[in-house]
Amino acid sequence: MVTGLSGLLYASACETFLNYAKQDPAGASLLIRKFILEGVEINGTLEGFTSSGGRVDLFNSLKKMNEWCFNSSAVNNIETIADVSLFPNPSNGGTFSLLSFVEGSATITITDMSGKSISSATAEFQNGSQQTFINNLPAGVYHIRCVFDNAKVFSSRLIVQ
Fold first, then answer.
1. Rounded distance, CA 4 to CA 36, Å?
2. Within 10 Å of residue 62's Cβ, how many Cβ atoms?
3. Are 6 and 62 in contact, with CB atoms under 8 Å apart?
């Protein structure tokens, strides 16, 4: 179970973590272990039966990893936003749209799960506007990151069938 959780954490990792993992694989493994152990939900009835004294919790571990990713970022004034929607998700053929209720210029970056940049584009958004991107992406899971000029960030996974 912990091996599967480790795999999910690696698959959900931010670009900063993936770059770190390439430079120091042993250090990245220790960080994954730390995220898992800090994410454990303590349960008194499991004390003495498990090494952690509780049960592993994927959501808590993901939160710990995201905290690390955010705190490791060189940009300190980032505001994560929910005013952008990505659809359809899953997508067929890699065509997707972003609906934004944030105004301004944005840089949209698509990376694969290894952290490799697939494409990058700039788009201009008005409140309630939609931009469609056609990338002919092969089937897989991708990370879409939309950074607005006012330092607001939208981040999501895109599944291409």
1. 11
2. 17
3. no
pTM of the model: 0.51
Can you state the percent helix, strand and coil of the chain, rounding each to 5?
A: 30, 35, 30
Residues 49 and 117 placed together within one structural domain of the fold: no
Q: Kindly report, residue by residue over 23-45, the tens digit of the pLDDT.
A: 778 888 888 888 888 887 777 77
Q: Which residue has the tokens 């931010």?
A: 14
Same domain, residue pair 67 and 90? no
- Do 58 and 111 fall within a single domain? no
Counted domains in the chain? 2
- Domain closes at, from 43, 71, 99: 71
Q: Domain end: 42, 71, 100, which one?
A: 71
What range defines the domain where residue 131 resides? 79-160
Tell me the per-residue pLDDT of 60-92, one tens digit each, with 9 for 90 and over. 888 888 888 776 543 444 455 657 888 888 888
Angstrom distance (rounded) from CA 31 to CA 75: 21
Q: Within 13 Å of residue 126, how many CA atoms lie on the same side as its CB?
A: 1
